[in-house]
Design brief:
By secondary structure, the protein is of the alpha/beta class. Among the domains are: 112 residues, Alpha-Beta Complex (Conserved hypothetical protein from pyrococcus furiosus pfu- 392566-001, ParB domain), CATH 3.90.1530.10; 42 residues, no CATH class. The protein contains 12 helices and 7 strands. The strands form 2 sheets. The protein has a 5-stranded mixed β-sheet. Strands 6-7 form a two-stranded antiparallel ribbon. Strand 3 and strand 4 form a beta hairpin. Helix 4 packs antiparallel against helix 5 and helix 6 packs across helix 7. The chain is elongated, with a radius of gyration of 31 Å. The N terminus is likely disordered.
């Protein structure tokens, strides 16, 4: 294999896994499926459809510093479209290379349809766990809706369980404001999952507490579990009160209301009231 030295800091033949490698990548397999070459950074564009929307500025700066010293240790993966090269995998390296002042970047050019491109983007990010849960859920939903993939198909692609895929996609049922807060505050999927089955008013009430007090997933689950028990107890108490009200109403012939520790008789006429007093 011919070494590409400009902008790399070493030939491709010397590439080995190190702590500086920002993503796992099978170079040999990739070369067999695509053309390996250097591209001008100005020729490379991001894929606006890729699931990942947010990038840590600090992480990009750290990677740029590494690239300045060691070069780009792994090629990005691109597809050619309308005279440009659209990124399939490696947007972090592309961003960091621009920040490091490079003019070119090593790339593997592959011929991919839109489904394969999306799959690679999701797999790359899902395996690194760099997508936030809402981005990941959106990506899964896109595979399901646009490419008719089942949760099982997606699970097989990304190496996760089917239950995990379904659970992540359910986050999309959250109110938009809750999803925005989740992303902004970097709340975990475990923290947010219990909220999916709650009504919007409850979510609006509880979410600020979760953020302010830094609730763990376990604390959120315990909160809803305790409230469910309280709710069940209250319903049972209300049911028993209704039974007692009906029994007393039947016995005294007037409407009866039980509220806490208070008992109220409601008479329609003075005669009813006089009769009730006589019977008590």
């Amino acid at each position: 294999m011919t070494a590409l030295k400009s902008g790399l800091g070493r030939g491709f033949e010397s590439l080995i896994p190190t702590d500086l490698v920002d993503e796992e990548f099978d170079l040999t397999a990739a070369e067999e499926k695509g053309e390996l070459k250097e591209l001008k950074l100005e020729e490379v564009i991001r894929d606006e459809e890729q699931p990942r929307k947010e990038f840590s500025e600090e992480a990009i700066k750290a990677l740029a510093a590494s690239i300045k010293e060691h070069g780009v240790l792994q090629p990005i993966v691109v597809t050619k479209e309308d005279g440009k090269y659209k990124i399939v995998a490696g947007e972090r390296r592309w961003r960091a290379s621009k920040l490091a002042g490079l003019k070119k970047i090593p790339a593997i050019i592959r011929s991919l349809d839109s489904q394969n491109r999306l799959e690679l983007s999701i797999i790359e990010n899902a395996q690194r766990e760099d997508l936030n849960a809402i981005e990941l859920a959106t990506a899964y939903a896109k595979l399901k809706s646009q490419f008719n993939m089942s949760a099982g198909d997606i699970a097989e692609k990304v190496g996760k369980s089917e239950a995990s895929i379904i659970g992540t996609m359910r986050l999309l049922n959250l109110p938009d404001e809750a999803k925005k807060i989740m992303v902004k505050e970097k709340l975990t999927e475990g923290v947010m999952r219990p909220l999916v089955s709650q009504d919007e008013a409850t979510i609006k009430k509880v979410l600020p507490k979760i953020v302010k007090e830094g609730w763990t997933a376990r604390k959120v689950e315990r909160y809803f579990s305790d409230n469910k028990k309280k709710s069940s107890a209250a319903l049972m108490k209300k049911h028993l009160s209704h039974k007692d009200e009906d029994a007393l109403s039947k016995k005294y012939g007037v409407a009866v209301k039980i509220s806490g520790k208070s008992l109220t008789f409601k008479c329609k006429t003075d005669a009813e009231l006089k009769d009730l007093i006589g019977r008590l």
